[in-house]
Design brief:
alpha+beta, Cytochrome p450, three-stranded antiparallel sheet, 19 helices, globular
């Protein structure tokens, strides 16, 4: 009977390896061995924009599919239990809520703190610029600098200011805050996450025997919970202030979970993208790009950083090539089924797109997709198609709420660095810069990037 049910499923007729009709074990193997992203991309190159990857899971890579899954009805389909992995303190936050109604309610509590009009206020821009200056000072103390560490110090200092001002971190100048950055940045959760996803009862039993050593029970969690429960009053501009003084009086664990989610995501998003971009700009093959960026910056007023076409193109291309969350974002098809990209998909099927493939599969929209070409974003042809397939921050009502803050941090830092300095890869730089996948994000595999900063002569 099981064989007949599977064989009669509409998914059987979809493109994909035959064995995925009957088993998801190969997908599981690829996930545990950090190969899911690459395997799915190869399948799309072989089979096209619709691929069955397990008996109850389909991967898509087209604008029509993206629009249906993530934007239809405003927020697309509900999330799957996969997102339970990202609860903090065993408590839901906006990112991990599965249904759209609960998500909308939680988002309303603080969305104004991440609107572009708020993020671009002079006080916040000034703090971000000050941190960018501290980053440069740190990187120019010696002949070469590990920008992977320094960029994550920069990003955690910026996001923690936004969350907790005046009680944010100062890891660029205060060594006592560096362990907080390291706890977030160097933690490897991939195997643990997939064990929890596939074997929750086993992991629950393990947790009863051995105290978990993860970010839910570490110093960061304790620090945030202390700020929420008994810490001094934060500035009225801080996200924490907004949550603690909301009319619905959310409980402390929820507020702490929310703040932790913003802190973790805000540190990695800007830090990893900037690291990959600055490394690439520092390669000899990218010197002309770096020079072109420098020329635009020195000929533009400092407060025009958000209106500079080449800076914008460089950052967009970096997010296309090295999006810090290039993995699949799974959703569950509503119970009565839906037609996605011309294909009927039964209810409760897991469907997703991954930005890594959306940013590469259609070579008419993205010619030479594996090459870093900022100029592609300056062309008028296919402008709409490029922006539709740009999935670096997700899409629809559940797209990344921190998009504007992350963009501010990245543009200001690039402006401060490449107005005054040229960068080169240090002679002793040997760390691997290939993408290393986590459950939903990726980072440079070697987690080290040595660059030299050479100041332009006045």
């Amino acid at each position: 009977m099981l064989f007949l049910r599977i064989y009669r499923s509409p998914l059987t007729a979809l493109p994909g390896p035959k064995f995925t009709i009957f088993s998801g074990l190969w997908l599981m193997y690829k996930e545990f061995t950090r190969q899911r992203r690459k395997w799915l991309h190869q399948l799309h190159l072989q089979y096209g924009p619709v691929v069955r990857i397990a008996p109850n899971e389909v991967s898509f890579a087209s604008w029509d599919a993206l629009k249906e899954i993530y934007i239809s009805g405003g927020t697309g389909y509900d999330k799957t239990s996969f997102y339970d992995l990202f609860d903090n303190l065993d408590e839901k936050n906006m990112f991990t809520t599965l249904d759209k109604m609960t998500h909308a309610t939680r988002k309303k509590r603080f969305v104004d703190r991440y609107n572009k009009s708020t993020v671009m206020q002079p006080d916040l821009v000034s703090v971000v610029r000050e941190n960018a200056g501290l980053f440069i000072a740190k990187c120019t103390e010696s002949n070469s600098a590990d920008i992977y560490v320094n960029l994550h110090c920069y990003s955690i200092d910026c996001i923690s200011h936004h969350l907790f001002h005046p009680y944010g971190f100062h890891s660029l100048t205060d060594e006592s805050d560096i362990p907080k950055m390291e706890e977030i940045t160097f933690y490897d959760a991939l195997v643990e996450h997939y064990l929890q996803y596939y074997f929750p009862k086993l992991m629950a039993l393990k947790a009863r025997i051995i105290r978990p050593k993860d970010r839910q029970h570490g110093p960061i969690a304790s620090h945030v919970l202390n700020l929420v429960r008994g810490g001094p009053e934060t500035d009225s501009s801080a996200v924490l202030h907004k949550l603690k003084n909301h009319k619905e009086s959310p409980d402390d664990l929820y507020i702490a979970s929310e703040c932790m989610d913003h802190l973790l995501a805000g540190t990695d998003t800007a830090g990893d993208t900037l690291c990959m971009l600055m490394y690439h700009l520092s390669l000899p093959s990218s010197y002309p790009t770096q020079q072109k960026l420098h020329e635009e910056l020195i000929n533009s007023p400092i407060d025009t950083f958000d209106d500079l076409p080449y800076l914008d193109a460089v950052l967009k291309e970096a997010l296309r090539c090295w999006n810090p969350a290039p993995m699949s974002l799974p959703r569950r098809v509503p119970s009565d089924g839906r037609t996605i990209a011309g294909v009927f998909i039964p209810g409760d099927t897991i469907v997703s797109c991954q930005s890594y493939t959306l940013h590469r599969l259609d070579t008419e929209v993205f010619p030479n997709p594996d090459e870093f070409i900022p100029e592609r974003w300056l062309h008028d042809d296919d402008h709409t198609a490029r922006n539709q397939l740009m999935f670096a921050f997700g899409a629809g009502g559940r797209m990344c709420i921190g998009k504007h803050l992350a963009t501010l941090e990245m543009k200001v830092l690039l402006q401060e660095v490449y107005t005054h300095y040229r960068t080169k890869v240090a002679d002793d730089m040997t760390a691997c810069m290939d993408l290393d996948d986590q459950a939903i994000s990726s980072r440079p595999k070697g987690q080290k990037c040595l660059l030299q900063f050479e100041k332009y002569s006045d």
